[in-house]
Amino acid sequence: MPVEVGLWRVDSGKPQRMNSTAIELEKQLEDLIEQDPAILGYPLLIIGRQVQTKTGGTIDLLGMDEEGNLHVLELKRGRTPREVVAQALDYGSWVSGLTHKDIKALYEACKHTVPFEAAFSKTFGTSPPDELNSSHTLTIVAHDADAATERIVTYLSAFDVPVNVAFFRYFTDDGRKYLARTWLVSENAITAQTSSAKKTRERWNGQDWYVAFGVDNTGIRVWDDARQYGFISAGGGVWYSKTLRKLPVGDRVFVHIPQSGYVGVGTVTRQAQPFTEAVVDFDGQEQRLRDLDLQGTYVHSTDKDEDITEYVVAVEWEHIRPQADAFWVAGLFANQNSACPMRSSFTIDTLTKKFQLDT
Q1: 209 CB contacts (<8 Å, ≥6 apart)?
Q2: Per-residue DSSP letters for 35-103?
Q3: How many CB atoms lie within 10 A of CB 17?
């Protein structure tokens, strides 16, 4: 059973219990959730309202959390327990198959004023994860529920079906209106249903890569060197260098300096090599990088047991800019790996236009 919410007015010296009622219009409750989904207890990006499914149904509200998981929010609207629970489960079966592309299409169909990636960044303060819809949850929103609804939902949640009921109590007092929320099943007891990971990532074109070029005040790695001599690098540990070493010759890299923005786009011309052996093309000829006039040292301390070598990948730049002129807008992709596939079409399209790249 859910925890009953009670409110008492105590400013008169004697507690006076305030009676709750159903909210005047369920549409008003839907409006409130859309305006501030955090009244459910956690922030959500609203993907759409009255979302049409391929099975002929209409989801009241479809949201997404910071992990990229989908939330189906369905208002009871006076339906019987079997009807509302069955409808939520039907929507869950449909939502579980949504791909990255499907989710963005649903968002765009709802005519939002900003791109999906920018809205996600504004809501959560971070870029969307590479994988969307790895799991989902189903929430029935109601003022109350009969014993049958409670019994069905509690039973399903015991078998890890991610369905719950959010109860909203509506109070009025002296012209003021209040909402209180409780859950039928403890939120910690709900296990989100996992979707197929193969379907939840945006399709990769097989040739574009994201590269993080880490700079700090140690002077080991300097972006001006990379701009001038045509290379990217990473090191200080196997975790940092192993992804960079996988970059294929001929593929394109989008270079991002963490905390600054995107600063370069180019084509890989040589396989990764240790700094001491690295060769770049400069002034029309092959030259050893360590023989050039460098600002960075590209050498790490030796107090580690693992391979801390700085690895260098030669790049022919198509577009470069100083770190002070790095480009960043909300929603662009960023990742902690030194290199990974660039799946974000929003990032590719935005940088292609900003840097006037050949398509």
Answers
A1: 247, 251, 252, 253, 254, 339, 340, 341, 342
A2: H-GGGGTS--EEEEEEEEPTTS-EEEEEEE-TTS-EEEEEE-TT--HHHHHHHHHHHHHHHTT--HHHH
A3: 9
Bridge-based pairing of strands 70-75 and 135-142 is parallel
Q: How many CB atoms lie within 10 A of CB 120?
A: 24
Residues 6+ apart with CB under 8 A from 99: 133, 199, 200
Report which of residues 239 and 293 the model is more confident about: 293
* Mean predicted confidence (pLDDT) in 103-112: 92
Q: Residue 178: CB partners within 8 Å, gap ≥ 6?
A: 7, 18, 170, 171, 172
pLDDT at residue 175 in the model: 77
Residue 82: pLDDT above 90? no
CA distance 298 to 215: 11
pTM reported for the whole predicted model: 0.71
Look up residue 348 and give its two tokens. 């590719």
**Identity of residue 337:** N
